[in-house]
Amino acid sequence: MGKDRLLPIFALLILLIGSVSSIYVYATQATTNTLLVNGQHYTMDQLFSLAQPRSFNESQYSGIALDDLMLKTGVVHPEQHTYTLKGADGYEKTVTWENMKNGLLMKDKESIFSDLPKAFRVKNIITIEVK
Amino acid sequence: MKNMKFIAGIIVFGSLWGFAECIIGSLLRDANLPAGALMTGIFAIGLMTLSRTTFRQPGMQAGIGLVAGALRLFNPFGGCFICSAIAIMAEGLLFDLIWTGFSLNLKKTQTLTIQASLGICLAYLVYVGGYIVTQILTPVFSSAGFYLENLIVFIPQILASGLLAALIGVVTVPVVFTLKKFDITIRDRVYYPVTMGVSALCWVIVITNTILIVWL
Questions:
Q1: Which residues of A touch B79 (CB under 8 A)?
Q2: Which residue in B103, B134, B157 is closest to A90 by CB distance?
Q3: CATH code for residues A35-130
């Protein structure tokens, strides 16, 4: 079969993959009012009353300190773990304790790290897993 | 002489793409629009298709991606500059590889179906490929490190997000092929002043924009 015929078939296959993936993403989108931190569910108000406040960039970004949050939610030997932040859309990023010391959780459930690129901003976080 | 024209072409197309990413891309992001897919589908695919059909030389788009990515590094305040620069450079290289893989006979007139199909394939694969490369390289260059499971669970979202780029590519590539029918040639006498002038203007605007953002 010539390339002239293969190209439209390949294009249709790509559209099919993109469409099926979109349906899958829409169907598996998680919605929850609580955050699962270290195996326990918390509301945002509970988390904000637990941990110390932190801000970056002259208060452009403000929220609660992620390292303090981990300690207050019962993580022992925090430097021996890694931390996976998962968003409702499935996006997740794993960071070290050193990164958590430079991280904050904002009221809109977004993570910001002063020592990491924007790719580590996980939006609408639903889980912070301690590994 | 032909080599010089080729290099000047890489610089001007790369500068135009980098300029679009820095200025228009930042505006789209501020407006909460899907900037990545729009920029890839329109500017990246449009400029790289135009350069490939004009110069017909493999390797050119990888060079264009390097120039555009370098320009993106000079404008770090419109977003994550490392991620964007890596994505742009990867997109240039991927376009080059994919087009070479399809190895279309450009002397032959392509049907609209082939042009549209090419647009879908290029836009989707370049966007998805660039996205995946960024998701791997950005953590590698950061202190957090790369975790394969973070990428695997996000693959469906990446595949889904490429759909918009593919749909834009359906229009972009045929438009470029149509524009190519208007045989616009620039004489050698004005070719270098025009390409260098346009490139310099793009760099000056981006650098000035960065300085203004820092000072204001």
A1: 118
A2: B157
A3: 3.90.420.10
Distances (CA, A) of A17 to A94, B109, B156, B159, B184: 27, 29, 9, 7, 38
pLDDT tens track for B154-165? 999 999 999 999
Determine the distance from the C-alpha atom of residue B76 to the mean position of all C-alpha atoms in its chain, rounded to a whole number: 17
What 8-state DSSP symbol labels residue B109? P
Within 8 A by CB and 6+ apart from A45, the residues are: none
- Structural domains of chain B sorted by starting position, each given as residue range(s) with its CATH number in brackets: 2-215 (1.10.1760.20)
Query: Considering only CB atoms, which chain B residues are within 8 Å of A99?
Result: 143-144
Give the Cα-Cα-Cα angle A124, A18, B18 (nearest 5 degrees).
75
Provide the residue type at B82 as one letter: I
Nearest one of B118, B116, B112, B114 to B98, comparing CA atoms: B118
Secondary structure of B186-200 in HEC code, one letter for each residue: CCHHHHHHHHHHHHH
Q: Are A39 and A26 in contact (CB under 8 A)?
A: no
pLDDT tens digit sequence for A61-73: 889 999 999 998 8
pTM of the model: 0.85
Which residue ranges make up each domain of chain A? 1-30, 35-130
Alpha helices (runs of H) in chain A, residue ranges in sequence order = 3-28, 44-50, 66-72, 97-100
ipTM > 0.85 for the complex: no
